[in-house]
Structure formats: structure tokens, C-alpha cells
Amino acid sequence: MSLSERFRAAAATRDLLAALPVNPTDIVIDEVVSATEAMIHGRRTIMAGTNNYLGLTFDPQCIEAGQRALAEAGTGTTGSRMANGTYRAHLELEQELAAFFDMPHAMVFSTGYAANLGSLVALLGEGDAVLLDSEAHASLFDGCRMSGADIFRFKHNDPDGLAKRLRRLGERARDALIVVEGLYSIRGDCAPLAEYAAIKAEHGGYLFVDEAHSLGVFGEHGRGLAEAEGVLEQTDFVVGTFSKSLGSIGGFCASRHAELGLFRYASRPYIFTASPCPSVIATTREALRQVTRRPELRTRVWHNAHRLYGALQRLGLQLGPHVSPVVGVSFSERTVALRCWQSLLEDGVYTNLILPPAAPEGGSLIRVSVTAAHDDAQVDAIAAAFEQAVRRHLPGCAA
Ligand code: PMP
């Protein structure tokens, strides 16, 4: 494809979106009111489309930690750790993450995207085999591709598909990397991690789990789905992001393998980018402490998850298979999804519209998410807005 052809394709996508009554990719949040509300199009809107699962973005202690670091250590590090130096706080966060996962090693990256790219290119090279869930996040796919390894995709959340591919790999299976997520962020469905761990035990390989959406939410200590499923010990690499439950920005990889320490010399997405700034590290450290100290945040987000899932189920909507803070509502027609999404926004509820090709299996979805900071009245308001949308645009549904 030539440059002009590529831009023509981008312009066609832009024009398609611009022709919609409200362009879902063009929503401007004029003012953030709290962890759960914002001003959009001049109206106070409930935010039901964030990844702020523990509701920590306005936590006073997280804010204070960030402000203190800004005053004491300045606005930015202005460079990479390899070239311009590691701040002590970077190392302290790495030690705290390692302790949190009860693993000997952890490494911090500048974003979750960089954590996936940086870990995968360090772990994999040409001739290696990587088994990748077909609905894995773009950063996982990009990291695998960038590594030059042979990519074998298996059907989403399908242990049999994984086992079949490993069997076909024969001897190569022993060193293969199995790359999956914990909670999938579009439909809110969970990976069968216990089954994957059993398959790994049988065929060999290493298990790499992206807990971006499950950190802080799943497991007794908030360590993620691998903890909840009792397979953290069998998980070789846990990656994640600070931009969701921890409310800041950055990413990490934690592992029980000493080789993780060598990533620093082998990972271009770590070496050639600026390190996280001091205020980000400080808010992340405080948020991580709260994951441990405040289990009530988990209790609260799960209460909201059940309340929302139950209400949407009663409306007869087509939901993902698992209850979680993310509820993916599927629609058979994209125009209906679009109209319902717009109706929700007009009723003061912001959700995420996911249209083909971004949605799994070419479908159309509205992604709704709740946080520990939503109260019952807000969750009920989200459900009521859905009821209205269904009445207006899905008359065949239970409502
Ligand atoms: N992994 C998954 C599963 C994600 O959903 C995301 C972000 N949506 C990332 C990684 C990247 O994280 P970040 O946005 O912090 O770079």
C-alpha cells in the first residue's frame, strides 16, 4: 500500500465516523468531576466506561503522594534509566511489586503497552514458538510480531485449541511461550488459567499472563486472576499496567525467573524510552499499598459488578459469560449498538462503543464498567439508562 493509499483508507474511516450523529471516537471530557463523573457536552455524566476499577484516581493519599514527589523530585526524569539513570523510587517500586506478587523479580516500564512489547521482545526471538490467544490485546500481538517468533494463535479461551497446538509443536513445546490475559477487557470474560496451567504442566512451555484488567480486582490479595485461580505459582511471567486499577500510568513485568533481570539489557522498549516521572511512581506506589491495605475496595467493586450484571441480565441483554467489573453487551446490528450507545450518553451515562473490526468476532458491543467508587444510585442509574435505550431501540428485548 502506498502512503497516499494508506491515508485514503484513514480518511475513509474518519469520514465514516464523522457521518455518525455522535462520533464515538471524538468524545471530549470537558471536566473531570470525580472518579465516577465528568462533564460531557455540557452535561454531568456518569463514567461507566473507564478502567478505574478501584476508583483511586481521586484518592487523597494518592494525590498527596504525587504532589509531594512533584515538589521534591521535579516534573520528569527527562530520559531513560539506562542512559540517564534510575531514580531510587523506580527501584523501590520494583521491589514493592516483587513483594506484592511474592516473586523475586519485577521490572517497571513506561506504559503497559511498553511492558508487553518490552517483555515479549526480550523473551522471544526468531525461531521461537509463541501461542497467543486470538483475542489478546494489540500490545501482546505487536510484541510477539516485533520479536520475530513464530506466532500460533489459538481460539479465544479455548484450552483444547492450545493443547492441540502444543502437541503439534512436539519438542518445540518445551520452550514455547503461552501468552494470554486474565480478565478480557471487552466482554469481561475470564481466561481458564487453571486449565492453561495444567496444559503447561503436561506439554511444557512458559505461561505469560497479562493481568492489566484483573490486577487489584481478582484474588484475595488483589494479585489478579492467576491468584484467584490458584495458579500464580505456575505462572512464569505476570505483566500489567498502572493505568487501570492503580489510576496512574506505566507498566510492569514480574517473574520468578532470574532472567527477568536481564531484560534491562535486551529490551528496546525499556532501553530507548524515558522512564516514568517521579509523581507517577509515587502515586503508583501509594495505589499499590492501597490494593493491599484496603480489601474493602475489592468488596465494593464486586458488589457493583454483581448489581450491574444482574440488572442488565434482567433486561434480556446479551452479556458476556462471567460477572466482572466489565460487562460487554453484544448487539447483532451495529446501528442498534450505535443508537443504544448514543441514547445512554444522552441520558448521562458514558460507555464504550466497540464496532467492527475492533469487536471480537466482527460483532458490535457496548462495554460498560463499574468501579469501587460508584455508589448504588449510580449503578442503578446506569441500569435505568439501559432500560430506556432498550425501550427505544430494542423493542424485542425483555424490558
Ligand atoms: N494490556 C491490556 C490487556 C490492555 O487492555 C491494555 C490497555 N488497554 C494494555 C495492555 C496497555 O496498557 P497501557 O494503556 O497502560 O499502555
Question: Overview of this structure, please?
Answer:
- The termini are far apart.
- The radius of gyration is 21 Å and the shape is globular.
- The model has no long low-confidence stretch (mean pLDDT 95).
- With 399 residues, it is α/β, with parallel strands linked by helices.
- It has helices at residues 3-18, 60-73, 81-84, 88-101, 112-123, 138-147, 159-169, 193-203, 225-228, 263-266, 268-271, 278-293, 295-314, 334-346, 376-393; strands spanning 29-32, 37-40, 43-47, 105-109, 129-133, 150-154, 177-181, 206-210, 237-241, 251-255, 318-319, 326-331, 349-350, 352-354, 364-369.
- Helix 4 runs parallel beside helix 12.
- It has 15 helices and 15 strands.
- It folds into 2 domains: 12-47 and 295-393, Aspartate Aminotransferase, domain 1 (Alpha-Beta Complex), CATH 3.90.1150; 59-293, Aspartate Aminotransferase, domain 2 (3-Layer(aba) Sandwich), CATH 3.40.640.
- Bound molecules: 4'-deoxy-4'-aminopyridoxal-5'-phosphate (PMP).
Detail the topology: elements first, then pairings:
Elements: H1 3-18, E1 29-32, E2 37-40, E3 43-47, H2 60-73, H3 81-84, H4 88-101, E4 105-109, H5 112-123, E5 129-133, H6 138-147, E6 150-154, H7 159-169, E7 177-181, H8 193-203, E8 206-210, H9 225-228, E9 237-241, E10 251-255, H10 263-266, H11 268-271, H12 278-293, H13 295-314, E11 318-319, E12 326-331, H14 334-346, E13 349-350, E14 352-354, E15 364-369, H15 376-393
Parallel strand pairs: 3-13, 5-6, 5-7, 7-8, 8-9
Antiparallel strand pairs: 1-2, 2-3, 4-10, 9-10, 11-12, 12-15, 14-15
Helix pairs in contact: 2-12, 4-12, 5-6, 7-8, 13-15, 14-15
